[in-house]
Amino acid sequence: MNDVMAELAKEHSQVTFVKLEAEAVPEVSEKYEISSVPTFLFFKNSQKIDRLDGAHAPELTRKVQRHASSSTISAGPNDNAKEDLNMRLKKLTNAAPCMVFIKGSPQEPRCGFSRQMVEILNKHNILFSSFDIFSDEEVRQGLKTYANWPTFPQLYVAGELIGGLDIVKELEASGELDTICPKAHKLEDKLKVLTNKASVMLFMKGNKQMAKCGFSKQIIEILNGTGVDYETFDIFEDEEVRQGLKTYSNWPTYPQLYVKGELVGGLDIVKELKENGELLSILKGEN
After folding, report:
1. Is 69 helix (H, G, I), strand (E, B) or coil?
2. Residue numbers in the chain where pLDDT is lower than 50
3. CA-to-CA distance for 23 and 91, rounded, in angstroms?
4. What whole-number distance in Å separates Cα of residue 181 and Cα of residue 9?
5. Which H or E run includes 191?
6. Which residues, at least 6 apart from 127, have a Cβ–Cβ distance to it below 8 Å?
7. CA contacts within 13 A on the Cβ side of 112
8. CB 153 within 8 A of CB 164
């Protein structure tokens, strides 16, 4: 769907497309009752005028064309002010202890430099989060000025720019790279302990008594209905765990359900397992 949105953005230059991670903005998810990913919201003059739940490319195209033909629509707040962009970039560069901005994802790098960067970081067991600059042109262009660094990939540690691929290669050759992200190995050990803290472990927004987003509330209701004992971890209480677990599990959203330390999946997976009758046996470790 990212490719579909990119093509629609090219075709309808008067339309502003904004992509948000549902787990990163729980207040938006709650307000607009987001229960599935992806969900598309259409806005005009700051008012929601339409929505589309699910990955339906033809229907998305029809809706965009229909609304664009009548007037300009906006998928979210217009964040073009320089100070607002700088604030956003600051948050992104500080989103994880080690943050890399690349073309594509760690699983599917879309250029040779990005692929080499990911390979080096993985080889040194550095725990990092990533941002696909192809997914947001404003970030892609703004970061060049913000960092005073004209090319990608870019590696940040504790919000500070380390450099690009050549710098990382130099640090690797000198042996300094392993000291740049000292928390990487410790965090991985911490996450391993947390995911094995109970036989059934749920990482969510809030806790059993008070879920803080619609997705977490739904999965709690499903688990409570099984009668199986489980423990929870509130990701709002530890930003390092919140960001690090995404890389550790290769699962970008929350909630995340683990059984005996192994990732089962998020809300959609749990719903599917419930519907096909497999959930209880998996929670009991029988499958």
Report:
1. helix
2. 71-76, 78-79, 184
3. 15
4. 37
5. helix 183-195
6. 97, 98, 181, 183, 184, 185, 187, 188, 244, 247, 248
7. 1
8. yes
275: helix, coil or strand?
helix
Claim: this prediction has a pTM higher than 0.85: no
Tokens of 279: 């959930």
Amino acid, single-letter form, for residue 53: D
Q: Is 274 left (phi over 0), alpha (psi -120 to 50) or beta?
A: alpha
Tell me the per-residue pLDDT of 89-145, one tens digit each, with 9 for 90 and over: 998 998 888 899 999 888 889 999 999 999 999 888 787 888 989 888 889 999 999
* Alpha carbons 3 and 30: distance in angstroms, whole number: 27
Residue-wise pLDDT for 142-169, tens only, equals 999 999 999 999 999 989 999 999 999 9
